[in-house]
Amino acid sequence: FNEGMDVLLGSGLTRPEIMDIISQGKFNPAWYNLAPRSTIDNFLMAYSTPAVGASGAIYGILVAFGMSYPNSELFLIFLPIPIKAKYFIPVLIGLDLFSGVTGYSIFGQGIAHFAHVGGALFGFIMMWYWKRNQFNKNRWD
Q: Fewest Cβ atoms closer than 10 Å to its Cβ: which of 92, 114, 117, 127?
């Protein structure tokens, strides 16, 4: 993306002009005269491809932490009140499940709520397996 943007900026276009054109899902065919076709194609594809985050994995770690240390107190940055992990984490997952099912999100659009729930489920299954099986001999608590 940056390579294509640098080429277009170097041709005299401004960033707002470029962003306005590509945000409409359009492009100027003259751009192919400024850079190799692959550079412009990659630039346009990078803009329209959705980003994938690691939030589902973070939810898995959060659930594993909650199962290991249920009485630890956690703080939500916007709500500076200590809440025990055994209460906080299920509420957070429930909120994501509600948002995923209804489509109503208090945190904004473009959030993969079911990825969060899936990560939490994977974290739960993994911790449940570890607590029941071979890892008990290695625990020090």
A: 114
- 43 with 67, same domain: the answer is no
> Containing domain of residue 23, as a range?
2-48
Give yes or no: residues 70 and 128 share one domain: yes
> What does the alpha-carbon distance between residue 23 and residue 45 come to, in Å, rounded to a whole number?
12
Residues 85, 21 within the same domain: no
Lookup result for tokens 């005269």: 33
Q: Kind and range of the H or E element at 84?
A: strand 79-84
Q: How far apart are CA 107 and CA 31, in angstroms?
A: 37
Q: How far is residue 61's CA from residue 87's CA, in Å, rounded to a whole number?
A: 16
